[in-house]
Amino acid sequence: MSNQRQASSASQTPHLSPAELSYLYTSLSLPRAPIRPDGRSPTQFRPLSAESNILPGTNGSARIGFADGTQAIVGVKAEVERTNLATDTLASQSDVNDSEEHQGSAAVSGHGSWVQMSIEIPGFRDDDALPVFLSEMMRESLVGSVTEGSGKADAADAAEMAGGLKGRLVINKRWHWRLYIDVLLLSQPLSYPLPLLSLTTHLALLSTKLPKLKSQGEEDPFFDDDWAVAEYLYPRISSQKTKLPSQYVRPPVTLLVISVGENVIFDPNREEIAVADAVLAISLTRDSEAGSLKLLSIRTIDPPSRLTQPAVPNSENVNMLGAPAPTEDIAVLNPVTGEEEVPGVWRPRRGGIKRSVIANMVQTVLKKGGVGEDVLEGLEGVEVE
Amino acid sequence: MNDRRRVNGPPGGTRPPVYASLLETGTGAGDRSQRQRQPAELRKICMHDDNLSAPAYQTNLWHFRTSVLKTGLIPSASGSSYLEFEPSASLTAARANPKSLIPPSSALKLACTVHGPKPLPRSAAFSPNLVLTTHVKYAPFAARKRKGHVRDSSERDLGVHLETALRGAIIAERWPKSGLDITITILEAEDDRWWGDAPDSHDASWGMMNVLAGCISAASAAIADAHIDCLDLVAGGVAALVSNDSTNSSSSAPRLMLDADPAEHRSIVSACVVAYMPARDEITELWLKGDSSKASLAAGDQRTGHEALIDGAVDAARGAYTVLAEAVRESLQRAFDQS
């Protein structure tokens, strides 16, 4: 347990022998045609079952289960809260002449702390590094997904989603919504749980509804008690006759990408991530203006391959002294990692990632018709009724 | 019998008064400090050593001035370092000639200690590699808003980032069954934005990214001071896309700045931290956030926004590396002198 906690960012230390690791690495790093243990293609996700709006007590909820039995449930709750106009800022006092422009800009464009996220993973305390790291990672892309500038609305109807999610939470200058996103992983994390949690959160946010506001302007908020007329937090395209590209803001999704050799592999399972050269979490969303995908954040995740046990080549093995030296036991330079390695003998990874590898991974995610678009389209297709 | 009851301070904290006269622009005290450096110029970190001659740094590409990266200050630790960034010009001016009780910006100061390698406790599971634990803590007085004594989520997050950055550089299999504790205390943190600004749509903890870059460099120096084998010194660097002007913020695209101080800019659109090993040209830790798609790069620059941002951060890390190498040289010199 203590070992697991210390190796927090890497999720788990893999329990594979050096020989198994080496075998996996070799098959995953075959040039241009990696062979994955479960036969998927490099960009293929594990089969999953998804449903949304499963919890009647929440504003929005979703459940996703992977075929290996890991399941996550996300519930989104919204509360109305009084906006605490910060007294220590000058914005409302300093510029008297253009006070309309600047007055309490927090109250206009929203604040990142209005979205709270908590992740519960069995076997981890909620202040362990892994849940904290995961929730910060997902929250930062969520509140960071700003469409344009500082809430500059060209048309009045585009103002709805002008500040991204944060802007949507503003009711008026004195009141705002506070969003609680509670993520529950139901099973032991068999693999690094990021893709599962991120997809489930995305789905739950898509299904989130807020009650329709009846009060106007700066009045104290007053809502329609008919749940049937409640509005989606992220407006649904299908419910509107005209397509409004300027409002087409979607929640972000965070993808887990690993690189093994020259290959870029998506949605790794536990064994695959154990031999990864580099692990990146890439958050993206749909760019409302360009219609393409937009990068929101990148984080490196500590690859568990650094924690593995090294193997000993026969030439260095004391038990093999006197035995004829095998001919294949010669160290060669691995062109990707720049390390001397004996083929078939596992060495834990050292060092970092080359910039070209990062660029390649991001490119694979973001390119047109790439994995990112596939995932977003697939999630959009989940019935939200 | 004297009164032993504890008298608690005010629960909400107190703030220095802000007088209306200070807020009129032009007096200097209520103004946002302006960036005096070139876009590609870093803040100075330098050896605080009177014996060393200054010209060695002045001829450097990065014009260093007296701020501090010093190793071996804490004798009980096996390695330690202290890092201090140069205060911005306005902060220096405000300290010399205070007009307001509120400092216009802050400068990073942090101390790092390394304990170990030491045997793991008996209860711990076997580990074939060095087990690294990182612990980043803001001092309660480090930021404008008081931090609690218990680490909050942002501090834990920083700890994970730091761990990722260092684990790639340390050659861990040379110390099986051992542990290494790295503790960083941040004495003065960077601001997330100018203190007079209300949080706007781009608000995020940008100061944290500068802090992380400082943590990486300082921890790297402390690890070298503890004589622990590494592939290379890891240096931290930050680059940011900032949009500065208030008048027509929509027309001008954000520009790339190395080592941006959030207090000097109206809004930061996107920022990136890297931990970089120059000898291998590898990145051990990358943390990029914000919308980098609208960067205005030089004409003919084919890179996308995030690539430019990463390259900028790597350049900043290269600058920090020169100071780092010098600090490690000094640390070795001291070790030789003692032996």
Characterization of this structure:
The complex is a heterodimer of chains A (385) and B (339). Chain A is of the alpha+beta class. Chain A has ten helices and 13 strands. In chain A, 22% of the residues lie in helices and 21% in strands. In chain A, the strands form four sheets. Chain A has a five-stranded mixed β-sheet. Chain A has a four-stranded antiparallel β-sheet with strand order 9-8-10-11, sandwiched between helices. Chain B has 339 residues and is an alpha+beta fold. Chain B has one domain: GHMP Kinase, N-terminal domain (Ribosomal Protein S5, domain 2), CATH 3.30.230. Chain B is built from six helices and nine strands, in the order H-H-E-E-H-E-E-H-E-H-E-E-E-E-H. Chain B is globular, with a radius of gyration of 21 Å. Chain B starts with 19 loop residues before the first helix and ends with a helix. The relative contact order of chain B is 0.15. About 6% of the residues of chain B have low confidence. Strand 11 of chain A pairs antiparallel with strand 9 of chain B, so a sheet runs across the interface.
Proportion of residues in extended strands of chain A: 15-25%
**Largest contact between protein chains?**
A-B, 71 and 66 residues
> What's the Cα radius of gyration of chain A?
24 Å
Structural class of chain B: alpha+beta
**What spatial order of strands do you see in the largest sheet of chain B?**
1-2-3-5-4
Number of DSSP-assigned strands of chain B: 9
Largest sheet of chain B: 5 strands, mixed
Report the C-alpha radius of gyration of chain B, rounded: 21 Å
- The coarse silhouette of chain B is globular
The number of domains of chain A: 1
Domain tally of chain B: 1
What's the CATH first level of chain A? Alpha Beta
Beta-strand content of chain B: 15-25%
CATH class (first level) name of chain B: Alpha Beta
CATH-level-4 superfamily name of chain B:
GHMP Kinase, N-terminal domain
List unreliable stretches of 5+ residues of chain B.
Answer: 47-66
What is the name of the CATH architecture of chain B?
2-Layer Sandwich
Helix and strand element order of chain A: HHEEEHHEHHEHEEEEHEEEEHH
Secondary-structure element order of chain B, as H and E?
A: HHEEHEEHEHEEEEH
